[in-house]
Amino acid sequence: MTEPNKPAKKAKRPAVHTQSSGRKRPAEHAAGTGEKTRRPAAKHTASTAQKKSGKARPAWQRGLRRAGSILLTTTLSFLLILVITCTIVGTTLVVYVLGFMEGTSEVSIREMEMSYSTFVYAEDKNGELVTLYQVPSSIKRIPIEIEEIPQHVRDAFVYAEDERFYVHEGVDYKRTAAAMANMVLHFWSANQGGSTITQQLIKNITGDNATNAERKIREIFRAMQMEKSYTKDEILAAYLNYIGFGGSANGIEMASLKYFGKHTSELTVAEAACLAAIPKNPERLNPFAYYVDDETGERVNYGHEKNRERQEYVLYQMYSNGAISYDEYQEALAEHIIFTDSEEYMALHPEDEEDSKIEPDKPTSWVVDAAINEFSEVLMDKYGISKKEARSRVNKGGYQIYTTVDLDMQAYVEERYMDMNNLLAGMATTNNTAHWRDLNGDGVASEDEAQFLQSGFCAINYSGEILATVGAIGEKTASLCTSYAYEPQQPGSTIKPVTTYGYALSTDYIHWGTPLRDYPPIKNPATGKLWPTNYSSGGGMSYTGSMKNVYYALQKSYNTIPALLCKELGRIEIYNFATSNLGLDLVQKDQDYAPLSVGALTYGISITNLVNAYMVYGNGGYYSKAHIISKVESGDGTLVYTGGTDYNQAVDEETSTVMNKLLQNVVNQGTATAAKITAKDGTKIPLAGKTGTTSDWCDLTFVGLCPDFVSGMWIGYEQNYQIQGHGRLKSAGIWKNIIGDYIKEHYSGNNFFVSDSVIEAPMCTATGNIAGSSCPKGITGYWKSTNAPVCSGHSYSGTGGAGGSSAATGAATE
Length: 814
Known about the structure:
There is one protein chain. By secondary structure, the chain is an alpha+beta fold. Helix 5 runs parallel beside helix 11 (269-276), helix 7 packs across helix 9 (232-242) and helix 11 (269-276) crosses helix 13 (303-320). A five-stranded mixed β-sheet has the order 2-1-5-15-16. A five-stranded antiparallel β-sheet has the order 7-6-20-19-18, sandwiched between helices. The N and C termini lie far apart (166 Å). Strand 3 (290-292) and strand 4 form a beta hairpin.
């Protein structure tokens, strides 16, 4: 009998299965009674799970996990900041480099090709260019073409200095990186050069040797530009023609002749390697390098040994790069080289001993000296270099210097300056103006011990161009020697028109006839003495205390009147006028009464500088700094400098005209009558000028203006002594002896510039103003339209009057 089926037991779902289910169980299945039950909170569930999973993690694990999280966050933040910073720096660097590249000038090989000598030129009267001088350079080179340089010679230099020369584009980045790394990490004991042949050529041409990153960047860009403009052969030829080989030898042809007595085309492999060894350190690695033994004083040659070491390296480089075979390499190492300094060479070439006797260079002329010095100053100002370095650049820079000199006038004045008697003619002789001395104490004042008068002269046209300059008496025997045309001297009374009178007239403080008291305006508080007084013909010093018209005070060169003007108008104002407007080279200590009133300067000024200031009184008031250079070009024809670009109005036209008339009166009626010149047709040539004499008679100066140019001279001893026989000398007469006949022969027939607005009229002798209809009329005067008082009556009798200017009533005592 079959057993009946038993009811199956209902399986109980495991709690784990229920909790792991991803589906939400319906509420009606949650409980058999149909009641709804709440789902446990997540927090409770997690707590329950944690309890079922075991114990909580240890604190150190939790701390480690937290530290890792912080470290990761910090690292990522740091990397993000680094990326942003690098991006900013990189962008800035790119902008800087691009801007720097745009500002980097391209270097021309032609600039180097023309830089073998500097030339000085002038134009003759027909406008033809005349070479005055080829400036001898301390650097000697003989340029040759690349075709004249054998391949093994080219290879020697390429594999010694820049073995990847034919494949890079101006910069060998591998070598540059290695050189920079070595500077920091010192892989090698010596610094490794990173410059290619192109870069070395750039450095030589430009002279840019600064030791900074900017110079290196400039050099890299210039090298890249050069490689785009020239072939490798052109660059290599320029390099070999330019680089130094020790001493005065520059360029491979000069070096080949110097060390071997043969041309570059005749060099052997060994000789080529010998020359290629030198550029790394020319003064140390050239075969003739030596030192002087301290004990014996003899020259000890070390160059042969040092050169040999480097030569072997060059030969190995040539062999390892396939330029020569192994047999040629061994043959070159074994070759016996004969240098020109050896007895062996002289025995083979006895004729070279005579050829080595070089005749001394002819001394430069006064014009060339002035041009070199002027351009040296330009370079000093431009590059902030010393005078010595500037002159060196002039000598080796290959410049073409064009001067403003008038060759006919220059030759004429130089001829006059050959003998002091030419300057003193009609007044004295060289011997009776000499300062005789017995320096050796033998009781005899010999000619060798005597001091003879010296002189300097300068002529400038009304554009500021120097037409003639002579710096001493006699034949010029040395280059760049002392020139009394440029040496500072005491100007005496020639200072007055370009200081006190000039400023007072330009500010309308005075006019032609302004009466001023002839009385010392300054009292020394310590001694009670009055200063200054005037020179009298009897040899004493004096003053009258009466009123003197301006034209008369200047005509007779009174000292009291300019001192009064200086006191009334202010020393600083007058100093600024003289230096800023008229370009006088005064120093700060010259801001005082004596320098500005009577020319007692701290150091003095040159006659060239003084003449330059006077030009404004002959051309309507325009000034340009005196210059003997019209322009300078570099070897490739680039304009480097132009003279006279500062031509500007320094004083107004009316001031220029009235001062010119005052100075003409000095020549016609005053202290400079000895300067008068009559033209060939008998007409009087218009002349203006001013004399100058120091109180101790150590200096005589004169500045004279004619319608065509202004010129001046200084005369005195080299040392500060009183001029012997000075009573017979007239500075205006000496000036006339120098340039008078030239003016007569070359006078253009022109007259001085005259402003249309200047008033020409008779002066009232009572007041100094423009004479009225009933006034006593004296000298014809000239008035600026801005200061032209007309006399309307006379309340003062005497030399002058009280009308027309506030200066007339100024106090004359202190």
